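BUG: 3D viewer hangs when loading the predicted structure for this chain

Environment: internal workstation, default settings.
Expected: structure renders.
Actual: progress bar stalls at 90%.

Input used:
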Amino acid sequence: MDLIYLAAPYSDSDDKVIEDRMAKICKVDSLLMQRGNLVFSPLLKHFVRPYGNLPGDWEYWQDFCKATLPKCQIVYVLSIDGWQKSTGVQAEIKLAELLKIPTFLIDEQGHIITKL
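Structure tokens produced before the viewer hung:
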């Protein structure tokens, strides 16, 4: 079974935007898992951050993402506000492209919109 890497925008100056994004990420992750998929999203580290006062920016997390993305066979990018401007999401898409990992844009119901 393929391991899916779920990418989505995260950072924002407004904590409410981050919390909204996290709710959407968790919902889609859960929907995909309910359908029998294996899903990994580095953004779920959001729940670990407060325990170590870890930063939430791409600069800090890029090494983690660069180490885990190659272990996945598919990349899904969640089509929520900010995905096209997100430094992290764009870097993840470029890495997947470099590694020839199929990458798809998905909606909030976990359905494929298009291949990227």
